[in-house]
Design a protein that fits this description.
Blueprint (H helix, E strand, L loop, with lengths): L1 H4 L12 E3 L7 H14 L4 E6 L4 H11 L7 E3 L19 E6 L16 H9 L6 E5 L17 H13 L4 E5 L28 H11 L1 H13 L3 E2 L19 H27 L4 H34 L19 H7 L6
Parallel strand pairs: 1-6, 1-7, 2-4, 2-5, 3-4, 5-6
Helix pairs in contact: 2-3, 6-7, 8-9
Length: 350
């Protein structure tokens, strides 16, 4: 479906894009890998894969390896030195997949130069006539591209999406998100689907939003059906026939409560030290914003994993006992980046 859609062009001259809206567990990563491999075999050796976390690079490598495309190397954009990606000091990378996070695109070298930003590096590597694959994985993260009400514009991702639109007309754009077509306001970045704009009933995205929201949820369902009918959207779901669910409440042990309280005190102390450091160096506003952004991101990850850790012992107890070795117990990780975790275990996970 994606390859067929990519052979069509919108009235404004842009190549039509494709939206993968598969639910969790279906395998969006392998589908993306298949699209990249198909284009690689057809001579389009360069692809770009955007996602939300650098850890997902390992999942991208696994997906390519699983479909038999282990010869396609995946390179992290933030690992390159500033300058031409195809230059010798960057390993002369001239083909493969460049993997980048949305936030990495704002990276900028303090020393200057022609390719002092990550975005300029990437645009140069792709070339003026780039017609390879550009993947926007977990693309709902750009939902604030056209902010409404109290929501603030996501400037970094807005810059990325519109830069790709301005600089390229011919790339094969793939959007991937489990919640892609569920909220019409979050579709502002999907301009390559041709739902609004030149040659459509809706001149601007705002016109499309007004028409859909006036008619409620049913209108969005009709939009999704029309997208599927026109071959630009696929949304598969895992079957849950015969599946039962049970919520098991985990009682916190005194040891865990004590550890949690100590962790809170540690982070309070860390915040005070960070504030003192920022005051001492008289950091500029941009540096403060970056520093506190990384601080609270690490803070959120820490407590998320601490909460997950409190449940591990109970999860193991719920698994099959030694007398039931014929049973298979499946544990579903609560976060992305499972390939990196599995690799770190050295193959001991069974």
């Amino acid at each position: 479906y994606a390859a067929q859609q990519h052979e069509t062009f919108l009235p404004n001259g842009d190549r039509a894009g494709f939206l993968i809206g598969d639910g969790a567990g279906v395998g969006k990563g392998r589908t993306i890998a298949g699209i990249i491999y198909e284009n690689y075999l057809l001579g389009r050796k360069r692809s770009v894969w955007f996602s939300v976390s650098n850890d997902l690079k390992y999942d991208a490598e696994r997906d390519l390896r699983d479909i038999g495309a282990k010869n396609i190397l995946v390179h992290s954009l933030n690992k390159f030195k500033y300058g031409k990606i195809s230059s010798k000091h960057n390993g002369s990378v001239k083909k493969g997949v460049i993997f980048a996070t949305y936030s990495s695109l704002i990276g900028e070298s303090q020393s200057g130069g022609k390719y002092k930003t990550r975005l300029k590096q990437l645009l140069h590597w792709c070339g003026d006539d780039f017609d390879g694959v550009i993947v926007f994985d977990e693309c709902h993260k750009a939902k604030n591209l056209c902010p409404v009400g109290s929501s603030k514009p996501n400037e970094d991702r807005a810059w990325l999406f519109w830069s790709c639109r301005i600089n390229f007309q011919r790339p094969r754009v793939v959007y991937a998100s489990a919640t892609g077509a569920s909220e019409p306001r979050n579709m502002a970045y999907m301009n390559r689907l041709g739902i609004w704009g030149e040659g459509t009933p809706f001149r601007e995205f705002s016109d499309f939003i007004q028409a859909v929201e006036r008619r409620g949820v049913g209108a969005m369902e009709i939009v999704a059906m029309d997208m599927k009918l026109r071959g630009m959207y696929i949304a598969r779901q895992l079957g849950f026939s015969g599946v039962t669910f049970k919520i098991d409440e985990v009682q916190l042990s005194p040891h865990y409560v004590k550890m949690y309280n100590k962790s809170v005190k540690l982070w309070v102390s860390a915040r005070e030290k960070f504030q003192q450091a920022a005051d001492l160096i008289d950091a500029e506003q941009r540096m403060k914003k970056s520093m506190w952004g990384q601080f609270w991101s690490a803070h959120q990850r820490f407590f998320k994993y601490l909460c997950i850790a409190s449940k591990v012992k109970r999860v193991v107890q719920l698994g099959p006992g030694r007398d039931k070795e014929w049973q298979v117990c499946c544990y579903w990780a609560a976060v992305h980046g499972g390939s990196k975790s599995t690799g770190s275990l050295g193959g001991r996970w069974r």
